[in-house]
Amino acid sequence: MNENMNQNIDQTAAQSAEGKTFSQEDVNRIVQERLAKDREKASKELDEREKELARREFRLNSRQKLESKGYPESLLDALNCNSEKEFDKALDIIDGLIKERTPSEQEAAEMEARQKAAASAPKFTDKSEPRKSGMDMIRKAMNL
Which long-range contacts (CB under 8 A, 24 or more apart) does 34-39 make? Predict the structure, then answer.
């Protein structure tokens, strides 16, 4: 491959210089420059691929963390996924909010007991007799 590149460079350089001949040092320098550019380009492409792979892996790990805690996958889009530390911090905040707003077992039992008591309590409204106006009730209470 290197020999083919050298021949191509030799031909291109000779044609562009209108008959000017290059020394072996010039050809070697040109080849080295082009190889360096190709290596740099390949290195950049490899770095981009590695970054993309790391992003995908992090997103997959984040999704697994959400699922292990019982949260829906759709929550992933709302959380900060720039780094694992930031993601864990956001997840801890959500955990704290849920714990804060979820009643304990004792509170839930007390709430259920109050609801049952309220449902079984007697109703003090008598709808058989039309409601009297406020003044009539006061007159009756004062025996007027």
Answer: 34/5, 34/9, 35/5
